[in-house]
Amino acid sequence: MRNYEVEATWHYHNGTKHPNGMLLSRFHMYHPSQRPTPYKIYKNISQIILPIEKNPIGVSTLDAISTNLDIKDETVPNLQTLSRILYFSAGITKKIKFQGLGEMDFRAASCTGALYHIEVYVVCSDIAGLDAGVYHFDPKDMKLDVIRRGDYRGKILDSAANESFTKHAPVMLVFTDVFARNSIKYQSREYRHAFWDSGTILANTLAITTAHKIPSKIITGFVDSQIGHLLGVDMVQEVPLVILPLGITNQEMPPTPDLIDINLEAISSDYEIEYPEINAMHDSSCLLNNTEVSAWRNEMVIEPKSQSQLIQLEKKINCNEPIEQTIIKRGSTRKFSLESITFEQLSTILSCATSGINSDFVNNETLSDLYVIVNAVDGLDSGSYYYVKEKNSLELLRKGNFRHTSGNLGLNQDLPYDASMTIFFMTDLKKILEQFGNRGYRAAQLDSAIAGGKAYLASYALGLGATGLTFYDDAVTSFFSPHATDKEAMFLIAIGKKEKTNQISS
Ligand SMILES: Cc1cc2nc3c(=O)[nH]c(=O)nc-3n(C[C@H](O)[C@H](O)[C@H](O)COP(=O)(O)O)c2cc1C
After folding, report:
1. Phi-psi region of 437 (alpha: psi -120 to 50; beta: other; left: phi over 0)
2. Does residue 483 contact residue 316 with C-beta atoms inside 8 Å?
3. What's the CA-to-centroid distance between 167 and ligand 1, angstroms?
4. Fewest CB within a 10 Å sphere: which of 48, 171, 410, 465?
5. 417 in ligand 1 pocket by Cβ < 6 Å?
6. Most distant pair of Cα atoms in the chain: their distance
7. Is beta strand 488-496 parallel, antiparallel or unpaired with respect to 465-469?
8. How many structural domains does the chain have?
C-alpha cells in the first residue's frame, strides 16, 4: 500500500520545516492585498436559508470542551441545531476594517493568516427542517448550497468501510481544503495548515455539539476519491480532509441513489497556484478503496509514561461562561502584557486541551505530548516543563527564564516572548507513521490542532488571550531534548493576558 511508503511524509515534513526546509523559498513574498476571496462561490445554485439563533443554551465552555459524551440513544439534530453548529464552527463572528485593505470577515475559529481555506459540507438524511441531501455551507450568507438532493450517507459509510458510528449518524460534516487560498502565503507548508485550521474549527464544532448533547466521531480514514466525487470537488485544488458524523438515528440507512457526475460551476479560489509537493503529500496519504480503509483503521494505544518528581496541577476552575459567548468574543491576541496568569488557569487550560477526542485513530485520548515554557505563572517557577497527562502533573525539565527562547522558537515574534506561557504540541511521528502510514501525518496534525483549539477556547473562557503560532521545528525539538528527542513539533499556542492594541492580524 502506497500509504505505508512513509518517506513521502518525511520528505514533506522535513522539507517544510522553518527556517531552511528545502520545499520553501526564502524569497517568497506575500502582501495582504493579494488575499484571495475566502469563500467558495457557486454560480446558479439553489440555496436554503439557515436560521440564525445565537443565544447561549447554558453549557459552560469548559464543560463543553472537556466532556466526552457517552450517549447511545437516538439524537437527531434539526435544522436549527445544525445551523448553530455550522455558525459556531465556521461562521462569521466579526468584521474588522483595516487601513488600505477594507473590511475583513473573521470567523468563529482561528485560521492561519485569516485565509479561511477550509470549506464545510453537510451530507444528511431527512431531518426536521431540511430534506436529505448534500450541501455546501455558505458562511457569508448563512445558507446551504444544494449540491445533491437525496440521502447519500451510504456513500460516506461505504468509503469509511462501514465504520460503526458512521452507520447510525443522521448528519455528517465533511471538511475540505482549498490549497491555493492558503499556499499563496505559506507555500508548501500549507498542507500542515490544512489540518491546523481544520483542527481549530473542529475544537469549536465538538464543543458546540457536546453542548447540544450530540455525540460525534472524527473520521480520518476514508476513500478520498469517493468523497471527492460525492461533493463534486476536483481533488487537485480542493480535497476532503476529515468527516464528522453527528448524532444517532434508529432509522435504517436507505439505499443510496446512483452517483451521477456533477459539474457545478464554482469558484473556490481567485488563484490557481500549484505547489506540487502539497499534492504529492496528499496523494501519498490517500486510501484507494475500502479494503485499504478497514485494514488501516486501528486506534492507537497510548502508553502512560512514568515520571518521578511531579508537580500536581490544581483542579479545573469553575467558570460558567457559555460556549457560544466564548466563541463570539474569541480572537487571536495581537499583544500580550507581560503579566502573570495563575497556576489554576494554567492547570485548567492544560487539562481542557488534553481531554481527548473520539476518533478513528484514538479513543478519548490525544496523540499529542505537551511541552510548556512558563514565563510568568504565579506559584510556578519559570522554566520548561513536560505535561504528564495521565497524572495531570508537570515534570520540570529546566528551571530558568526562557522568554527569549520562547520568542525565538515562535519564529522570533513578540507574542511568544510576551506570553505568560507557550504550549508546544509534539508527537512521536515515527511511531505514528509506523502504525498509520502517511495517513497518520494527517491524524497527528489534526489531533494536535484540536487540542490547540481547545486551549484557545479554554483561555478565552478564563478571560485570557491566546494565539496560535508557527515555529522553528528542529529548534523546538532541541530545546526540549533529551526529553523530546524523538518528537516533532506539531502546533504552538501562546497564552497570557491581553494588552489592547490595533495591530493588524498577520
Ligand atoms: C495554527 C495557527 C498559527 C498561527 N500563527 C500565527 C503566527 O505565527 N503569528 C501571528 O501573529 N498569528 C498567528 N496566528 C493567528 C492568525 O493570524 C489568526 O487566527 C487569524 O488572523 C484570524 O484571526 P482570529 O484568530 O482573531 O479570528 C495563527 C493561527 C493559527 C490557528
Report:
1. left
2. no
3. 36
4. 48
5. no
6. 64
7. antiparallel
8. 2
3-state helix, strand and coil shares in percent for the chain, rounded to the nearest 5: 35, 25, 40
The residue with cell 487539562 is 351
**Rounded distance between C-alpha atoms, residue 287 and residue 290, angstroms:** 8
- Quote the CA–CA distance of 191 and 24 in Å, as a whole number: 12
- The residue segments making up the domain with residue 361 are 311-496
Can you tell me the distance from the alpha carbon of 338 to that of 80, in angstroms, rounded to the nearest whole number? 42
Name the residue at shortest CA distance from atom 14 of ligand 1: 468
CATH number at residue 377: 3.40.109.10
Residues 285 and 316 in one domain: no
Of 238, 268, 294, the last residue of a domain is 294
Mutation pick for ligand 1 pocket among 96, 111, 327, 368 (CB with most ligand atoms within 8 Å)? 111
Sign of CA pseudo-dihedral 308, 357, 9, 435: positive
The dihedrals phi and psi of 7, each to the nearest 5 degrees, come to -60, -30
Tens of pLDDT along 250-265?
999 999 999 999 989 9
Q: Check whether residue 470 and residue 359 sit in a common domain.
A: yes
Instruction: List, for residues 303-320, the tens digit of each pLDDT value.
Output: 877 677 899 998 889 999
Q: Exposure string (b/e) for 275-297, b if CB count within 10 Å is 16 or more?
A: bebbbbbbbbbbbeebebbeebb
Rounded to the nearest integer, the mean pLDDT of the chain is: 96
Residue bearing cell 508537580: 311
Between CA 323 and CA 251 the distance in angstroms is: 31
For position 315, what pLDDT does the model report?
84
pTM for the model: 0.97
DSSP assignment of 334-379: S-B-SPPBPHHHHHHHHHHHTS-EEBSS-EEE-S-EEEEEESSBTT
Per-residue pLDDT band for 100 (boundaries 50, 70, 90) equals: confident
Asked if pLDDT for residue 504 goes beyond 80, the answer is: no
